[in-house]
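FW: tagging you since you asked about this chain on Friday. Here's the raw sequence from the shared folder, copied in full. Didn't touch anything.
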Amino acid sequence: MKKILRSLEDIIEIYIPMACFVVLFVVFNVQVFLRHVLKAPTVWSSELSGIMFLWLVMFSTNYTTKNHRHVCFSMVYDAAGERRKKVIRVLGSLLIIVTYSLGLVPCARVILREQRLSAVLRLPLRVVYVPFLVFLLFTIGYHVADLVREFRPKALEEGEEK
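HL: got it, structure written out here
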């Protein structure tokens, strides 16, 4: 079961963003070629580029959150002692868990009830925006896991690493 979940996680956090980047790159270059070389701009390429960028950001952000590779401004954190660092980590995780959890149900209602189609490609907007729900769920999950790790006895942590 763990292997299946890890594979699903890799698909969502690594392979979907890679595919989105490839599509975004190709479509963007096609768009530039059509607009500037053939003088025949297209609208579909702008819409698809926007959708791929949204998906790329929403799906790949999960990977950076899980691995603590996101951009952070850590001047205060770096100057703090170990005890204060723990307080900062716990409060930060709690803030994210609470705010994202408060937004999860309303966002899910809006996205899943969406009936409109995108302007050019006629894609269901619920499909376009579903990655935002994935982002919220994964981010909440990773911060809950961080909280559990913060309060887990050190002996348990060291035993799991071996």
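FW: The CA atoms of residues 6 and 140 lie 17 Å apart.
HL: agreed, and The chain has a mean pLDDT of 92.
FW: great, closing this out.
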